[in-house]
Amino acid sequence: MLALLGAATLGLFAGALRVSPAATGGTNLKSPHNVEVYIVDDNFILKWNRSNEAVGNVTFSADYLIPGMDNWMKLPGCQYVTSTKCNFSSLKLNVYEKIKLRLRAEKGNSTSPWYELDSFIPFQKAHIGPPKVHLEAEDKAIIINISPPGTHGSNMWAMDNSSFTYSLVIWKNSSSTEERTETVYPRDKIYKLSPETTYCLKVKAKLWRKVGHYSRVYCISTTVENKLPAPENIQISAKDQVYILNWDYTNENVTFQAQWLYAYLKKIPGNHLDKWKQIPDCENVKTTQCVFPQNVFPKGIYFIRVQASNGNNTSLWSEEKRFYGETQTIIFPPVLNMKSINDDSLRVYIGVPKDSDNKSVNQPYPLIYEITFWENTSNAESKILKKKTDFTFPNLKPLTVYCVKARALIEEDKWNKSSVFSDTVCEKTKSGNASKTAIIAGICAALIFILLVIYVVKVLLRCVNYVFFPTSKPPSSMDEYFSERPLKNLLLSTSEEQTERCFIIENTNTIITVEETNEVDEDHKIYNSQTSQDSGNYSNEDENSMSKISEELQQETV
Description:
The chain is mainly β. The chain is built from 7 helices and 34 strands.
């Protein structure tokens, strides 16, 4: 539809003449000329000029053709017309769809050739008519109520009633030279007027590039000045998480109240007095300011007004102050924290900002963050936008200091409003060998653990072997008594326990056994003595060898 609007022309339309062959008996009639279509709001007028020949009793008829139709249809309001124009407003058309017209002259059974107009789109050709205006007077202002151009339920502007903008010219009736021009809403106030003075004005509408016609002139007189003046100079500002509304007032012993209204309602024709809402904490206020939370106003545009009261007397409402919350909202800078997570990466965390009282601040609008990042020894900065409050800068140099700062911006903000930058935070990346050292340390720890397990298992196996599978070799303490190999093969009886002490004398063939003997011949050399209370078999050879040794010893003794 916008493409169609861009191609709109505001001039009168004159179709190209395409003459069809004359009907039977049409040789005496010529086609009408200078045919044009003129559209204002929902009024469709077809105009033309007669041919120059003087022919009486001539009438004119028109047909139309729209997409989807195979045959021409008679144009309502334009059949057998005796004048040089006709109104076909009764035809229900799609104003965004092309239509084609043709016109001819008729007299009896004779007709002229058809005059065909090029196809056109009604919406593109339509002119904006004058709006209707209704006025109400106050002491220093005039309330204006504007009805959109066209008839009620207009087909042409049905989709654009709320898209019209209006401008007016106003002047004192006594001096038409002192004019002032203002842009107004369908229901609005014209301020800064004088009491008891007659003012006149006219209004025109505009829709994108289409500019309408001025209305007729309307005049009205302002009333006597109100005893209780209205508050003036309305101002609103933001601090921390609240709005501060201020106004000027000279009288004392009065109270005030403030109201707000969605700005979009101003664009909709009609009276919206019941849509005004009370601002919290701004009712029965005895000072010339009030404070209220920012979350009273979600994202959008509003109007604010203030009224004074003194007992039963009330002032008129103040001038309505346009208020765009995003332009007033204070955005606090974020709080940054950065940590080195390995030798080539830094992790950034964005925290909730604090207000002047060191309290956490919740912003009323969704935020995004502009992050500025750079190497500490370099002036080259990189900037990125992030919605997340934690993210990583990868592939950095080891053992290098990097710095970061950030500011908060309101997401999808046409005013590009942002906070100041946060404090700069710097952090050094870890050593490039940190990961290798960690791997080596892990391997060493694993090896130590494996060796420890092997050692414990080995000790346990020894204990098990000692308890359940004792060795057949004599203990080392007993093994000392058997200095010669034949004696070491001596098989001790397992049936009785040895408790005697034996002495072996060198260069003799006799073994002397003494019970509880403490004396030994001085001429003899004692090798060793050992008391054994052990029992068991101690042998490295089979039983036959031991038997043979026993027999030889007995013979020597005899």
